[in-house]
From TrEMBL:
Belongs to the metallo-dependent hydrolases superfamily. Adenosine and AMP deaminases family. The keyword Hydrolase applies. One of its GO terms (biological process) is purine ribonucleoside monophosphate biosynthetic process. InterPro entries: A/AMP_deam_AS, A_deaminase_dom, Ado/ade_deaminase, Metal_Hydrolase. Its cofactor is Zn(2+). It comes from the Bacteria. It comes from Roseivivax isoporae LMG 25204. One of its GO terms (molecular function) is metal ion binding. Residues 13-332 form the Adenosine deaminase domain. This is Adenosine deaminase. Pfam families: A_deaminase.
């Protein structure tokens, strides 16, 4: 593929479904807020200014330390604005972001409402200014355990609606089991929320099976190691279960050595619904444009492939039908 074609795919309008809000925080924003509040963040940044971590578990603790400087709804408003500026600059027209009541009020419902209102108002202003539509997916954190997950699910259920559209789980996949969180997911399902959980990033196909069979999710965060079980891959394709794939994240964290060894092309070829996201972009030194350029270079994905991928992503988004129709039109723009 020549450089003009690669530049063209990078400019396509994009749908992003897997983006952790705090994980998308520009390091300069976190450093600035820490300085204002006199919070010591030694160990969080490398000398060159990027986030410092050595492996996945270390990444999770650096994430939590950086997030610790965000203490008020106003801080989250600043964060949301900065994240959406980056999304808009990358041609994202629709994005779903993971929000954690654990970080936004410690699981307290009334505090959560204040954080959510600040995030939502900022998102609506950004939509008017920059044309990027955001929706929220409440996320519990696996290594915080099932009790905290239940409190997060209660926050999600009480604020479910046209903006807060989903419930999910991130965190350390090697801690606990998906089934430990069934109560939280049932509560979210009953509130009408779309469901997703991280699975098959670190653990193998059995974890993805548990996600779809035990928690009943329609989307799986990452899910890439499903590729190791052909029967499961077939089932994902047949049942239309969507994988929120984050290739740059997987390479940065060492799930795969390099992009050419990543299974996204195989999964797509077998008919699994895949979308592409950045996960925690500044942590992994990626952007949506970078992801598209790298996929074009590595797998020869041209504009037709990536447009189709975005249509599929939008089909699996948790937003309402009117929003889906509106965004679908934006995906057709040249
Ligand atoms: O790549 C990832 N894999 C698994 N969990 C993650 C990843 N990035 C962030 N989080 C988890 O999501 C929470 C907030 O949404 C973070 O606290 C972290 O535990």
């Amino acid at each position: 593929m020549d450089e003009d074609q690669i530049a063209h795919v990078a400019d396509l309008p994009k749908v992003e479904l897997h983006l952790h809000l705090e994980g998308a925080a520009p390091p300069a924003l976190i450093r600035g807020i820490a300085a204002e509040k006199h919070v010591d963040l030694s160990g969080v940044f490398r000398p060159d200014g990027g986030y410092a971590f050595s492996d996945f578990v270390h990444f999770l603790s650096v994430y939590e330390a950086a997030t610790g400087v965000l203490k008020t709804p106003a801080d989250y408003a600043r964060l949301t604005r900065a994240v959406l500026e980056e999304s808009a600059a990358n041609g994202v027209v629709y994005s779903e972001t993971f929000l954690s009541p654990d970080f936004c009020g410690g699981g307290d419902l009334s505090a959560w409402r204040d954080y959510l209102a600040a995030i939502r108002e900022t998102a609506e202003a950004a939509e008017r200014d920059m044309g990027v539509t955001l929706r929220g997916v409440v996320t519990c954190i696996r290594h915080f355990g099932p009790d905290k997950a239940r409190a997060a699910a209660r926050c999600a259920a009480e604020t479910a609606g046209d903006w807060l559209v989903g419930f999910g789980m991130g965190g350390d996949e090697n801690r606990g089991e998906q089934k430990d969180f069934a109560y939280a997911f049932d509560m979210a399902r009953e509130a009408g929320l779309g469901l997703t959980t991280h699975a098959g990033e670190w653990r193998g196909p059995a974890e993805v099976r548990a996600a779809i069979d035990v928690l009943g999710v329609s989307r799986v965060g990452h899910g890439v190691r499903a590729v190791e079980d052909p029967a499961l891959v077939e089932e994902l394709a047949e049942r239309g279960i969507a994988l929120e794939v984050c290739p740059g994240s997987n390479v940065a964290l060492g799930v795969y050595r390099k992009l050419s060894a990543h299974p996204i092309e195989t999964l797509r070829g077998k008919g699994v619904k895949v979308s592409v996201s950045t996960d925690d972009p500044p942590f992994f030194h990626t952007t949506m444009k970078d992801e598209y350029r790298n996929l074009a270079r590595t797998f020869g994905w041209d504009a037709d492939v990536l447009r189709e991928l975005n249509r599929t992503a939008l089909d699996t988004a948790f937003c309402d039908a009117a929003t889906r129709t509106r965004i679908a039109k934006r995906l057709e723009t040249p």
